[in-house]
Amino acid sequence: MTTPRPIRAALAALALAAAPALAAAPQPPNPIHPAFTPLDAQGAPAARSEDVSADRTCGACHDAAYVAAHDDHARAGVRATCIQCHVDGGRLAVGPLDGGKLRREDLRIGRPGNERCASCHGVVAAGAAPVALPETFELPPEEGRTWSLTQGEGAIVSAQPMSASFLNLEGKEAAAAPWDVHAAKLLACVDCHHARNDPRRTDLKRAALPSLKSDPRRPSTGEFLVRPDHALARAECRSCHAPLAVHDFLPYRARHMQVLGCAACHVPGPMGPALEMIDATAVTAAGTPVLVYRNVERRDGEPLNAALVRPLRPLYVLRTEADGARRLAPVNVVSRWRWVAGADRAEVPFATVVRAWREGDGWAPAVLGALDADRDGALATAELRLETPAEVEVLASRLRALGVADPAVDAVLEPHPLAHGVVGRDRALRDCGACHGEESRLGGAYRLASWLPGGVSPRPPGAGGVELAGTLAAAGGGLVLERAPGALPGLHVLGRSRQASLDTAGLLVFALALGGVLLHGGARVVLRRRAPASPTGAAVREVYAFGRYERLWHWTMAGSGLGLLATGLVIRGGAGAGLATTVAIHDVLAVVLVANASLSLFWHVTTAAIRSFLPEPRGLLGRILEHLEWQTRGMFRGRPHPGQPEGQKLNPLQQLTYLALLNLLFPLQIATGVAIWAVGHWPSIAEAVGGLSVVAPLHALGSWLFLSFFTLHVYLVTTGRTVGEHLRAMVTGYQRVAHSEAGPPEGGGP
Amino acid sequence: MLTWIKGRRARSVLLLAGVVAAVAGVAMTGRADAARAAAFEPRVRPHFDHAPVIQGPFRAPQDVTRACLSCHPGAAAVMTTSHYTWLGAPVAVPGRAGEKVRIGKKNLLNNFCISNIGNEKACTKCHAGYGWTDVRFDFTKVENVDCLVCHEHGSGYVKGPGGLPGPKVDLLAAARSVGTPRRENCLVCHAYGGGGQAVKHGDLDSSLEHPFADDDVHMGKLGFQCVDCHGGKDHRIRGRAFSVSVEGSNGVACTDCHTTRQHRDARIEAHLRSVSCEACHIPSFARRIPTKAAWDWSKAGDPGRKEDPHRYQKMKGEFVYEQDVVPEYRWFDRTVGRYLLGDRIDPDQVTVLNPLRAGIGDAGARIWPFKVHRAMQPYDAVHRILLPPVTGGAGGYWTTFDWDASLRLGAKAAGLPYSGRYGFARTDMYWPLAHAVAPKQRALRCDDCHGGAGRMDWKALGYEGDPLRAGGRP
User: Fold this and answer.
1) ipTM for the predicted complex
2) Contacting B residues, span 437-456, partner chain A, CB-CB under 8 Å
3) What whole-number distance in Å separates Cα of residue A517 and Cα of residue A507?
């Protein structure tokens, strides 16, 4: 019998093939990097990993001084060496040497993998093990160690579907999208954060040199490898993506791309735990600062991995992007309190703060005495707050005792633009109402802090290209950023933005019109009751006053105008999901109205019917006064309508009104309407006249005036001899006139 | 009649409209409930209720067949199909010179229970016929066709040795229940081949009787029946299993239904040149029920070892079962070679019973997901041919535990020479996966294959490296 050995090998191979990759692939040996001798700080061969000096070892070939001078990671408090970023595991293993140099298989060096960046910046999961927050997630930051990506932005960089993670996410079952679409598409951190003079990358120059598609003057690979510029690029979405080439579904595409940063829709609600505030003036029993998360529902003592994480609701701000444009961007604002000391107000190391709060394994008795409100000998989470000056002083004096000069509480607001954890189109924000609707994300109150440690309000951020538009206000002991509901200063948001003064003016005109109508109408009713039955029983005859076309254009105008007013109101009210449809209807109605007006103008001009609209200058004032007299007095006494000159259907007041309407209001509405519409295609047109913030309120004012006109017009329709007479005339074309009257029909309709 | 319609036209139109409206109304309100119920009930196509027209009594199962044929004479065409003959049409086996041959379950070896030859009585439990217990079975008798195994609905119909119904089967009830085949009808054989649940196919098991959407999006979410894809005229069911078939004509493909461009992302769409739909949309197999990955017959017969149906059986040897398995990926052009009875093997090499023929250079080939079943099975050490042992019945291995005797019996039944010296040789079988398609959210993503830690062995597939960096095939 043959041995069964082959099957074992086959089964083992099968098992290997079947086992999912549980961890990230280690960095493979670098096939071309020359072998080198690890050196210590003195330049002697290093025997142990701990002794290896990156400056000496790498600096033997690479220009370490140049790199240090051009390095984002070489700031105070940051200790990233070549080895930490470029060597697998962040540690150069000094194995057996071959001719005094490291063996090829130990040269696991090269471009930094995601996990290298993650070792300082946030949660990055490269393997197949479900995404979870590490135990160290809440520990105080070591020197240079930060979780900014996750605690700051709520981002977790992983290709895994969110539903496969270990976290307790809201809506987890349905969250089949990856944590980060770029990770899922195999991009690495260093693909966007690359060395600035990397000869392969010229896209950064494109903004500065718009006339050049590509700049051939690049450093050679050799030059680059000697002197790589480590002031890393911050490639923005538009470095790679051309948003105008896609987004076909989006109305006002050009306008949206002009004012929206990509993240506004593509980082709509990160699912990683993001901070609201860090109170490093206080120390928890675990020896960490007090951390308050914005999107985590957590019971006392619950591990963060088990607490319910909801989508982070970002604050939307205007942010200056790399190309100089200010665009809407989501940020998470973290307010941070810490002890500062001395004249330069340098931050007191957190380890010192810990020593001020704690003695041995417990709380310092003085601290306990000041803060233990329920006298249970321990400080609960709610008690870890320095609120009164006395409480602050207790800690300040303890800090002074520890050698800290002039300790004081200081606080800053740190906006973290959401740039990582990008989602693809399936999960991107597509709801118009998210900005334009009732529940607009752009306005309202945004909580900055639930309480103010030490009574200190955090300072707004200085530079950074981010403006926290709005006013800081105290609320419930904490701090909120308040904005008018739905509005963002400096940006006109269709459906949400209001221009108060023009709106007030328009409303005033409308109120006057409505008030006048009510007053006049009320008087008519009252006086008619008192007056004897009017002599309308006199013989009447019917005159064909309105031709078929006149009635057609009138009612088309009326229908489209009313439709425009109605849809305009809906749009201004923030139609939300139906916004795009409503805007489309509004546009179609506008086309109908303008076409109708043009045809009707042509008809009036060619048939000379326009003469009805042109007041006869001779005796105009007299006729106006006569008409006013009739409207204010004669009408109530049952006097007949004063007649018009030959061939004129309209009374002088109507003529004046229509002149204004046709020559001022119509052009205003059409021009502003076209400008608003053109924003979707040629944003520069609206910008030339002051942008949407000017044009849109003017359009709104025009619609107030139109509404006022409609009110008066409809009321005047009722001022015939009977209430429905004029209306009937405009429907049937036949106007009833008193038999005795000769010549032109009375009135013309309002 | 016509005059009546003429006279009452207006009224009848009104009446008709009313009825239509009422029906539509009922249908609308009932739709949500019906959809919910459909998720729990096995879906069956509406079918003529046979209960009133089937009259008993049936003393023998063949009586049922005669009753069926009295109304469905055309159904006798089953006799020419592989469900009955266990032999396909003459085919030129790819990669072999010579005459076309008829091959099928009847005359092929596999590396599970190895062969039907000499073991007919047990194997034909899944034969769509009655009474095939040995070579004397009369394939020409039309009443030997078993209509019920495919068409009865939930009547407790089970088949026993020789394909005959079990003793407790109520033939009348079974005959009265008939309808279009349901998933259970197909799965009773296709999920239990190789002597147990999910042994053979990695992508067919009893979980598909009532699958969740995650198990199979077609059947679990959309309520498909097997016959929705595996249709066919005159009982000639479409579909090919490459454990017995050697080419893909009359097969079923995703693109039979999914005819238009499917992926919005051009990068994914570009994969269709080289990657089968199945490769991405069947991310793993045996997701619910473990399937047999390896079978070592050489270990059989040890009375000292603990019996465990998933690890070791004295009768069958040693097994490996696996669940939620990442498939193996190979180029596949829907043709395979085939080991035929009497072919010589090299016992030092792995003999692939249905060797895949395509490589990276074949334009028509795509990367497919496979379950590979690995086995040790007996062969004649002198003639170097694989042998079919007789296992069940008198003199079979499962009674005697004597390989020599059972191989002698099997060789005789198969008409093969037997030298008296035997060994065990390594064999593989490739099972392309096509069922248990996962919902699109679970389809593979870039990083499942590309970027380093992926599941593809690019070098083995013939690439110079990850095609993301090294480039695709020319």
Assistant:
1) 0.72
2) 441-442, 445-447, 450-455
3) 15
